[in-house]
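For the sake of clarity, the format in which proteins appear in this thesis is described at this point. The record quoted next illustrates the convention:

___
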Amino acid sequence: MKTLHRFVLKSYLGPLVMTFFIAMFILLMQFLWKYIDDLVGKGLEWNVIVELLIYASAGLVPMALPLATLLASLMTLGNLGENNELLAMKSAGISLPRIMVPLIFVTIFISVGAFFFSNNILPYTNLKISTLLYSVKQQKPELIIKEGVFTNLIEGYSIKVADKDPKTSLLKRVLIYDHSTDVGNNSVTYADSGYMKPTSDQKFMVATLFSGYTYKEVAESKGSRKTTTGKLPAQKQKFEKQVIVFELRGFGLQRADESFFKDSYQVLNLSQLSATKDSLSAALDIQSQAFSTNISKNSLMRNPNWYIRNTPVEPTYKINIDSLYTALPKSQQQIAVQRALDYARSSKSYITSTKEEFFHKKKYIARHQIEWNRKFTLSFACFVFFFIGAPLGAIIRKGGLGMPVVISVLFFIVYYIITISGEKFARELMWDPAMGMWVSSFILLPLGIFLSYKATNDSAIMNADFYIEAAKKLISLKSKLKKKGQ
């Protein structure tokens, strides 16, 4: 029996590792496609790109691991069935549950490991990738001088070149506007040709210009006599060679402070999520009580002494509002109506704004509850997908990457759509957060139980001949009933 279990285990681990890395690669390509606009043209070093991909890969494990479990179990049992090895085991008196025992233990180990990964490693990687992505998005794009276009990436300068030699990088007809003094275009440099190259540390840009002029308007001193036209005196300097050094600010990757992201629900573990959620709920309860008191004292009952009593007995009031109103003069009636309208509008505005504030705070609390439940749904999804893929592979008896991939992708798409929909309903407070996060697993769990039962009893539900025979029986039954009716 040990030899059999080693054989089954060996047949399962290979496809599991292979499908996991295939799923990771596909999801990583989707991640790069999503953030391609933020990465291209920034001049990022290779170690930054590698660091970003490592953190992104860790964040994609919750999606890749269930898919790999489903596909690997389907391929393994499908290969055993296609090669009649599963039939030989059953002929020897070994039931399907006993054959699957080592795979079940592996799945339990994967589920437990997935939980610890979600609770301990994933918050750290979420913090790192959030900080790194924010830093990359804030970085200026790589400085590229384009022909016929003003470049404003260098702070305080606007540069334009008419032509650029792609082989020698020689710039022709270079025009540089100096705005560094914040007084307008008081300095302009024109050169017939030149080169612009950054220093090795990427902190400065060195422009070497040839055969040109520098035009500069000179501000008059306080003691000098002002011109009647209001124009400033100008200087014109001719040069054969001139070197200008520009400071490159914001082109290097400036990493953001991680403390800005440490309060996000995505970077917290179970205990931190529970503590934060309790704190937020307690603060919301206090604010709700304060709102109730405030709306009663200041909006409904304007008399500040209405709630002060010398006796615990509830007082009774016999006031005829209509008689009080009609007893007032016409001018006082209008004032009373206007004041009542002002009070009503003020109370409505206060209630509406507070309602929106409470709604957003409840949504923020729900985000913490969603993230808390997500720590467990990953582990449970691996378990559920195994009990869908393994019996399904034993039923269809098809291995390889053909039919198993199609079936796995279909099941995963259904799971993903249900998960995203449930999470969206939970975020919008339409469903309870626990219900929204567990609905996909609870929908697929009965399917896994049903397929396991059918596979154990050698069901033919995935056999085309079974459905053809059932259709023939149904047609013959209808024809017999029709004859009896005649």
Notes: The first strand starts at residue 157 and ends at 164.
